[in-house]
């Protein structure tokens, strides 16, 4: 098992590496589980099918990319599903539209053509802005459950200090999940085993496709094109030293959705925050994706009832999102254009990634033209 950037150096022992892979395998569960659970509780989302396909794609994408690449629900669609009680047809229609659009865009090298026009500072700003959103979201969750949030943060900090002093593996997330599950079992009892049941969904009618395109696809696609393709590719290169073309990410997102949404899968994407989450908790190879995917598949097959996942205290997810946000923010700060990055990050926080991306692009373009004009004048 080789780790990027460790050639010629004395690396950690095999046992430490495996512990890191196990810990990192669930690093992005703080994003995956709340969205799918929330959507299943209030909308017509089949939690078993959603978890099953997410787990399958965890394993497949790990094999395909060779690094811990994130597989997670599309956040905008997830948020709207939780707030708007969507039907399975509306969710399926949005996934099919996005799957086809991303596949065509990636195959046609559309992102690659645009990427050369996009300043890196704009992408870094989106990264930092998404980090701020994660931190803001984590604060809201932690306020709801301050006791468990404090316990979880304490565990994370203890392991962080132990790792710096003694070079111990950071398995804090495993400890936190163990405490959370134990607390849930004690307070709510053992959940019933509920085998998964799924089938092919009926094809949505044209009116449903139109509604989904306007209400779900339009809010989601700017976030997908920024965070799930360009920013995700940059984060993978930052953390894993692996160059992945954004168009390649678009293709795999298209394939994931076209292959799983017709069977009840939730619309899926990659994401810079998810990549940062896996890395933050020790994932370095495709092994972590196989482990995380297997866990999700087991939950899907035998514990598909939403009550099972509701055993976990909400404070657990809040503390987890806090540290994931800090890791992603660290990537966003790798810039020599702090003013531009900060401005875009604040726009992401107070508006949305699409508006911030457009504003940042125009701002960078105006700045470059002004610099050229000044240079000619000199």
Structural features, described:
With 378 residues, the protein is an all-alpha fold. The protein has one domain. The chain is built from 17 helices and two strands. Strands 1-2 form a two-stranded antiparallel sheet. Helix 16 runs antiparallel to helix 17. Residues 1-9 have low confidence and may be disordered.
Radius of gyration: 21 Å
| Order of helical and strand elements | HHHEHHHHHHHHEHHHHHH
Largest sheet: 2 strands, antiparallel
Uncertain ranges: 1-9
- Strand % is under 5%
Question: What is the number of independent domains?
Answer: 1
Give the topology:
Blueprint: H1 14-25, H2 29-42, H3 47-65, E1 72-73, H4 75-84, H5 88-107, H6 110-115, H7 120-144, H8 146-166, H9 172-188, H10 206-240, H11 246-260, E2 268-269, H12 272-280, H13 286-302, H14 306-309, H15 314-332, H16 338-350, H17 353-377
Antiparallel strand pairs: 1-2
Helix pairs in contact: 1-13, 2-4, 2-15, 3-13, 4-10, 5-10, 5-11, 7-8, 7-10, 7-15, 7-16, 7-17, 8-9, 8-15, 10-11, 10-12, 12-15, 16-17
């Amino acid at each position: 098992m080789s780790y990027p950037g460790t050639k010629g150096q004395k690396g950690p022992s095999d046992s430490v590496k495996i512990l890191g892979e196990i810990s990192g395998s669930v690093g992005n569960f703080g994003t995956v589980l709340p969205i799918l659970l929330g959507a299943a509780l209030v909308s017509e989302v089949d939690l078993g099918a959603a978890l099953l396909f997410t787990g399958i794609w965890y394993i497949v994408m790990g094999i395909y990319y060779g690094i811990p690449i994130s597989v997670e629900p599309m956040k905008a669609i997830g948020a709207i599903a939780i707030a708007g009680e969507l039907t399975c047809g509306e969710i399926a229609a949005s996934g099919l539209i996005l799957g086809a659009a991303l596949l065509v865009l990636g195959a046609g090298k559309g992102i690659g053509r645009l990427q050369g026009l996009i300043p890196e500072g704009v992408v870094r700003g989106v990264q930092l802005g998404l980090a701020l959103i994660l931190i803001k979201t984590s604060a809201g969750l932690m306020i709801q459950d301050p006791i468990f949030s404090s316990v979880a943060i304490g565990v994370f900090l203890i392991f962080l200090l132990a790792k710096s002093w003694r070079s111990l593996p950071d398995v804090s997330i495993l400890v936190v999940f163990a405490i959370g599950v134990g607390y849930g079992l004690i307070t709510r009892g053992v959940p019933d085993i509920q085998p998964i049941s799924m089938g092919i969904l009926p094809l949505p009618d044209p009116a449903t496709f139109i509604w989904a395109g306007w209400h779900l696809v339009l809010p989601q696609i700017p976030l997908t094109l920024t965070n799930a393709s360009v920013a995700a590719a940059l984060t993978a290169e930052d953390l894993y030293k692996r160059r992945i073309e954004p168009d390649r990410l678009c293709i795999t997102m298209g394939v994931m959705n076209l292959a799983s949404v017709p069977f009840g899968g939730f619309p899926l994407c990659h994401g810079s925050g998810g990549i940062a989450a896996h890395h933050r908790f020790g994932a370095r190879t495709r092994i972590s994706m196989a482990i995380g995917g297997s866990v999700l598949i087991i939950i899907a097959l035998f514990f598909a009832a939403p009550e099972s996942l509701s055993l976990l205290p909400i404070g657990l997810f809040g503390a987890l999102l806090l540290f994931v946000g800090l890791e992603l923010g660290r990537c966003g700060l790798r810039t020599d254009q702090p003013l531009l990055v900060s401005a875009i990050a604040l726009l992401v926080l107070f508006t949305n990634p699409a508006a911030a991306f457009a504003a940042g692009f125009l701002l960078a373009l105006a700045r470059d033209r002004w610099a050229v004009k000044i240079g000619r004048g000199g």
